[in-house]
Write a structure and sequence with these properties.
alpha+beta, globular
């Protein structure tokens, strides 16, 4: 564990007013309690000094006001599933755990909107919206446990991003607690609003560095009538990529278009006995087509023709919802299956223009040949150019080599006109790479915005800006 920076006396000064406001059971200081909040999906560990579990906006206001008064860092936390260190308390201080602010406040089907608290699990909102025949499209792989608040903070994407966009495209309004404990409301519960600067869009993806979300209004859309799924095997990645390009260039916009490379395929073998993986398959596409039933059937038929023309070895079509779920299981088991390669990994989510996907895949393959102790596995949302690159290694001593390869991958991504993060955010894991993509003037504007919202630098410090503090 890294040591904390808040003094015992500072934390002691918070205890009485916090316990009075939230109740003793929602203010945790025992080491065995705090250690549960010391990490996130990035597997870093930083022990907080205190954990506060708010149940209302007023609880958040009181906690943040006190933290600001005593200049104690505040780290908002949803499910802790982020992969770039967005929730880890790198300077100790206070973690705000939003697990108890998990109510769906309303779903107004006539207006196509829902309002939720930040601790609502993404899949829970999707399930409830479906009862109204409505659809919340952002669908990160972590939807079964990640929270809407975390999704908004990171601007999460997911498998439906190609057709339906990412989280920012569905956030209409926010209730936000600022660094001094004041509350602002941005946006409106309308599908259109161009009144003033778009503070809502500014705050989405800010990773808790500008304010803390306590209420979120999202846009919903009607559920598609039909979804069809294909699992397609190819002899080479080039065949898969060219198939994807052909599908899109012929005016078919899939709900999902996922790519899996040879290393990832090898990991899957043995995990799903129901699906036979051809031995000569070196790439996979998983394709969803949705919409009205007649258009879906027509679209699926055309997709089958296109993949066949590009050398598909085998095409499996789901005949019902269960089979569709089984086909998608191939994608969902990838993360745990990767540990068949090696016990350690660094997971990146680069994004390049779709026209440069083959170039970045070739570049990663070339790099991997120069690092024989490492193994790269690539999969992800090929339709929007978002590739999850996993650099695997056998022993902890090989991490410097993995980090060096990641550095090369990031630089190649930028050279090809891409971005260092498609959907996982920056946190503290990628902050050192930010100046590679963001020019000095633009980076300074971002720092000025941070200073305006958070003059004392208490909100999620240590994120975004490498070695940058407000003082």
């Amino acid at each position: 564990m890294k040591s904390c920076t808040a003094s015992k006396s500072e934390i002691t000064n918070l205890l009485a007013p916090l316990r009075k406001c939230l109740g003793e059971k929602n203010v945790l200081i025992a080491p065995e309690d705090r250690i549960c909040y010391a990490y996130d999906g990035s597997k870093q560990k930083y022990l907080p000094d205190i954990v506060v579990r708010p149940q209302t906006t007023q609880h958040v206001v009181e906690a943040v006001r006190l933290a600001n008064e005593h200049e104690i860092p505040v780290y908002p936390r949803g499910a802790g599933s982020g992969l770039t260190g967005g929730a880890v308390p790198v300077f100790g201080g206070m973690v705000l755990d939003f697990a108890q602010m998990n109510r769906i406040l309303e779903i107004v089907s006539e207006d196509l909107v829902a309002t939720v608290e930040p601790g609502v699990v993404t899949q829970t909102l999707q399930t409830e919206a479906a009862k109204y025949n409505l659809f919340y499209p952002p669908d990160p792989a972590s939807a079964a446990f990640s929270t809407i608040g975390g999704n908004v903070a990171e601007c999460a994407g997911g498998i439906t991003g190609l057709k339906y966009g990412v989280t920012r495209d569905y956030i209409l309004a926010l209730e936000v607690v600022l660094a001094d404990g004041s509350v602002i409301n941005t946006g409106r519960k309308t599908l259109k609003s161009v009144t003033g600067y778009d503070l809502t869009r500014l705050l989405v993806g800010s990773e808790g560095t500008l304010g803390i979300f306590t209420r979120i209004t999202v846009k919903l859309i009607p559920l598609p009538e039909k979804i069809e799924t294909l699992l397609v095997f190819f002899p080479t990645p080039k065949d898969a990529v060219e198939s994807a390009n052909t599908i899109i260039s012929h005016n078919i916009l899939p709900r999902a278009l996922e790519f899996i490379d040879k290393s990832s395929i090898d990991c899957i073998k043995g995990y799903r006995q129901e699906i036979e993986l051809p031995e000569d398959a070196n790439a996979i596409l998983i394709i969803d087509i949705d919409g009205e039933e007649t258009s879906v059937q027509k679209g699926i038929a055309r997709v089958k023709t296109f993949v066949s023309e590009h050398g598909a070895i085998k095409v499996i079509a789901a005949s019902d919802a269960k089979e569709r779920n089984d086909l998608w299981e191939v994608r969902r088991i990838l993360s745990p299956a990767l540990y068949k390669i090696a016990p350690y990994k660094i997971n990146e989510d680069i994004c390049v223009p779709r026209s440069r996907i083959l170039e970045i895949l070739h570049a990663i393959n070339d790099m991997n040949s120069r690092y024989p102790r490492l193994k790269a596995a690539n999969f992800g949302h090929i339709g929007d150019g978002n590739i999850h690159v996993n650099v695997m290694y056998e022993v902890e001593g090989d991490r410097p080599f993995a980090e060096k390869m990641i550095d090369e991958i990031i630089r190649s991504t930028i050279r090809l006109g891409g971005t260092i993060s498609g959907e996982h955010g920056i946190g503290n894991v990628k902050s050192k790479f930010l100046p590679l993509e963001i020019a000095p003037q633009e980076l300074q504007i971002m720092k000025d915005i941070k200073r305006l919202f958070d003059p004392k630098g208490i909100l999620n410090p240590g994120k975004f800006f490498n070695n940058y503090t407000m003082r």
